[in-house]
């Protein structure tokens, strides 16, 4: 539950000043890890288009815009950088489905409890895990995410962190989350010659231990794969089995 030292450089990715400076220098759009086209089967599988969605650490990514084009009706985007928020607010001022607010994910008290059906995080927890107070920051952020989710709501985390470094945070009993794991190769990855695995195997949940860890002997075709954690907020009426059982496909409607 310490910092992701091996994956961090000297920058403090949890610092608003760092991100303000970066967005001033890099005014174009940039999506961390995966574009919406790759994530769409998972988003459409677990998040109805009528959901009220919170996109944390939106930055200058186009994922929210792509989701609106795909039929999503309400996405609140937040970021610690006022530069990014103002830039995106101007860019999307005519898209009424998108709202933008400058906010720290560690304190989202502006929103009442159980305000959202879904929270999407593409790299924000990772950024905090590179900060100097990583365990405390992660705990504060995830506590807020849990508070904001409605019963049965989904926290979708897209991360470079494998279960050994993410499940100690996601698996805390206080959140009461049921977690399903997917592993997806990085964009542009080419399978090794002679590979016999299914072309769509990444659309299937990865079997895990009771603690949410990868089973012994599990082999990553792409050593730099990304992990998608589907965390469902459980209560006495919300069971993971209630999620429709149809298989994922790359052309989910």
From TrEMBL:
Q: Which keywords has UniProt assigned to this entry?
A: Methyltransferase, Transferase
Per UniProt, what is one GO molecular function of this protein?
S-adenosylmethionine-dependent methyltransferase activity
Domain (Methyltransferase type) ranges: 54-156
Q: Where are the transmembrane segments?
A: none
Q: Which Gene3D superfamilies match?
A: Vaccinia Virus protein VP39 (3.40.50.150)
| UniProt xrefs under Pfam families | Methyltransf_11
Gene Ontology terms describing biological process: methylation
Instruction: Supply the InterPro entries for this chain.
Output: Lys/N-term_MeTrsfase_sf, Methyltransf_11, SAM-dependent_MTases_sf
Q: Which family does it belong to?
A: Belongs to the methyltransferase superfamily.
The protein here is known as: Methyltransferase type 11 domain-containing protein
Record organism: Vitis rotundifolia (Muscadine grape)
**Taxonomically, what lineage is the organism?**
Eukaryota, Viridiplantae, Streptophyta, Embryophyta, Tracheophyta
């Amino acid at each position: 539950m310490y910092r992701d030292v091996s994956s961090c450089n000297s920058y403090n990715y949890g610092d608003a000043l760092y991100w303000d400076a970066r967005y001033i220098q890099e005014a174009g759009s940039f999506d961390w890890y995966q574009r919406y086209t790759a994530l769409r089967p998972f988003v459409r599988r677990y998040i109805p288009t009528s959901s009220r969605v919170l996109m944390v650490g939106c930055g200058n990514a186009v994922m929210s815009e792509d989701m609106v084009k795909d039929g999503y009706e309400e996405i609140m985007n937040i970021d610690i950088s006022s530069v990014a928020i103002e830039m995106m607010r101007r860019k999307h001022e005519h898209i009424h489905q998108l709202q933008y607010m400058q906010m720290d994910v560690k304190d989202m008290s502006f929103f009442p409890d159980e305000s959202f059906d879904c929270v999407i995080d593409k790299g924000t927890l990772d950024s905090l895990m590179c900060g100097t107070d990583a365990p405390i920051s992660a705990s504060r952020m995830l506590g807020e995410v849990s508070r904001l989710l409605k019963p049965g709501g989904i926290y979708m985390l897209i991360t470079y962190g494998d279960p050994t470094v993410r499940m100690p945070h996601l698996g805390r009993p206080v959140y009461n989350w049921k977690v399903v794991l997917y592993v997806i190769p990085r964009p542009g990855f080419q399978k090794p010659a002679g590979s016999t695995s299914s072309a769509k195997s990444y659309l299937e949940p990865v079997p895990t231990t009771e603690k949410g860890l990868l089973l012994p002997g599990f082999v990553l075709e792409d050593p730099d794969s990304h992990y998608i954690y589907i965390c469902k907020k459980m209560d006495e009426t919300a069971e993971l089995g209630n999620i429709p059982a149809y298989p994922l496909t790359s052309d989910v409607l």
